[in-house]
């Protein structure tokens, strides 16, 4: 993929139930191998912890169901922390 000189790269294709360590190892490996001057996008992050660790491992962009799932269960994030709406 690197030889194709794409404008950015997606990291994904995992099923979502992997062991956290395996998920993070995959993100780290891909981030290390992909060009640092191109966006590295991690698809389908499910938890805030994974988002933070992926960023620390070198990923630049994400899509994450965490905020939507949290809202579905009646909570919202504010600058003061999470609040229950129902």
Kindly list the characteristics that best describe this protein:
alpha/beta, 3 helices, elongated, 35% helix, 86 residues, 3-stranded parallel β-sheet
Please give a structural write-up.
- This protein is of the alpha/beta class.
- 35% of the residues lie in helices and 24% in strands.
- A 3-stranded parallel sheet has the order 1-2-3. A two-stranded antiparallel sheet has the order 4-5.
- Strand 2, helix 2 and strand 3 form a beta-alpha-beta unit.
- It is elongated, with a radius of gyration of 15 Å.
Helix/strand class: alpha/beta
The major pleated sheet works out as:
3 strands, parallel
How are the strands ordered across the major sheet? 1-2-3
Uncertain parts: none
- Rg over CA atoms: 15 Å
Q: Rough shape?
A: elongated
Which range does the strand content fall in? 15-25%
Order of helices and strands: EHEHEHEE
What's the N-to-C terminus distance? 47 Å
* Helical content (DSSP H or I, runs of 4+): 25-40%
Write the layout of secondary structure elements.
Elements lengths: L8 E3 L8 H14 L6 E6 L2 H9 L4 E4 L1 H7 L2 E4 L2 E4 L2
Parallel strand pairs: 1-2, 2-3
Antiparallel strand pairs: 4-5
How is this structure best summarized?
The protein has helices spanning 20-33, 48-56, 66-72, and strands at residues 9-11, 40-45, 61-64, 75-78, 81-84.
